[in-house]
Amino acid sequence: MRLRFQAVSGTLASIPITLFGLVLVTFFIGRVVPIDPVLAIVGDRAPQDVVEAARLQLGLDQPLYVQFWRYLGQIASGDLGRSVMTSNPVTDDIIRFFPATFELATLALIVAVLIGIPLGVWAATRQGSWVDQGVRLFCLAGHSLPVFVLGLISLLLFYAHWGVLPGPGRQSIFYEGMVDTRTGILTLDALLAGDWGAFQDALLHLAQPAGVLAMFSLAYIARMTRAFMLNELKSEYVTTARAKGLSRGRIVWGHAFRNTAVPLVTVLAMTYAGLLEGAVLTETIFSWPGLGQYLTVSLLNADMNAVLGATLVVGLIYVMLNLLSDLLYRLLDPRVK
Questions:
Q1: Which of 308, 314, 317 has the alpha carbon at shortest distance from 71?
Q2: Fewest beta carbons within 10 Å, which of 26, 69, 252, 335?
Q3: What CA–CA distance (Å, rounded) separates 4 from 179?
């Protein structure tokens, strides 16, 4: 118990170092890219004296180490600068756009887990059969087909051809502004307001982009689950359990899957982190106002404050979820010290 506490303490102590490295890399990326933040603010036709005055005001005339400590102080106070594109503080923009990505990523992960894990277990218990081959082919297709192809096919079939699902966007025009924004998560806000029509509309708009992301994620989750289960099913304790006459379901779910769930924690955490960074192509195709679309538009408009701020948030998400998976791994597996 003491060794595990020391290991957890060591993991927690590494967070400041990791975050400092993340900020350092983010800062220097913003300085080496061939985009002048001053020209993005004042325009490339501004007089030279205006450009120099803006450069002086932003502190870009100072040495890099001075600029870095200033940047570090701004981040520590929650100031990520002001967006040139929206004229709002980048922090406010991220708070406004991130809930849409969170809503989309969370539903996609839930669907991927509910389908991907049983598929992986099913394939592993029938290794070499047509079921196993079918699941492997499905996983290969899920990884091979580009996201934008799946998105366009989905829109073509479910929206344009069959008309069973709404088109791009987060909600229909009829429901815009009808639900008060409390959390930024539209489905949750509609439930809190008791507006079932708005909730159904938001859920239908969420179905296609979440389904596309879930398809890509569940292919990876199913493949990893199958690999972990195959390894566990070959273990000696499974052979012993079979010799004792335990039922197949108890062996698979009560013994093998319990040990598989430990490494699956890391897989799910990293999958969720990848979804939370903002699925750029999916959000663009479905006009989903999330972090990925915000980051892409900011980059195209040379809005470096927004780009660096959003990149820093994405990096922070990866660090925190990686830390969470590491802690859960240590808690679930008594063999890890």
A1: 308
A2: 335
A3: 47
Between CA 142 and CA 158, with CA 206 as vertex, the angle to 5 degrees is 65
Q: pLDDT averaged over the chain?
A: 86
Q: How far apart are alpha carbons 124 and 132 in whole angstroms?
A: 7
Exposure class string for 280-289: b at 16+ Cβ within 10 A, else e: bbbbbbbebe
Q: Helix crossing, 304-332 with 257-276: angle to 10°?
A: 170
Q: Name every residue whose Cβ is closer than 8 Å to that of residue 301 and which is 6 or more positions away in sequence.
A: 40, 84, 85
Residues in the chain: 337
Which uninterrupted H or E stretch holds 24? Answer: helix 2-32
**β-bridge mates for residue 82, sequence order:** 89
Angle between helices 2-32 and 304-332 (to 10 degrees): 160
89 strand-pairing partners: 82
pTM of the model: 0.88
pLDDT of residue 308: 84
Amino acid of residue 6: Q
What six digits make up the tokens of 60? 């870009």
Distance from C-alpha of 271 to C-alpha of 143, rounded to nearest angstrom: 13
Beta carbons of 170 and 288 less than 8 angstroms apart: yes
Cα angle vertex 16, ends 11, 19, to 5°?
110
pLDDT above 70 covers a percentage of the chain that reads 93
Residue 144 CB-half CA count within 13 A: 6
With beta carbons less than 8 A apart as the criterion, state whether 75 and 89 touch: no
What's the rounded Cα separation, in Å, for the pair 320 and 316? 6
Tokens of 147: 């996201």
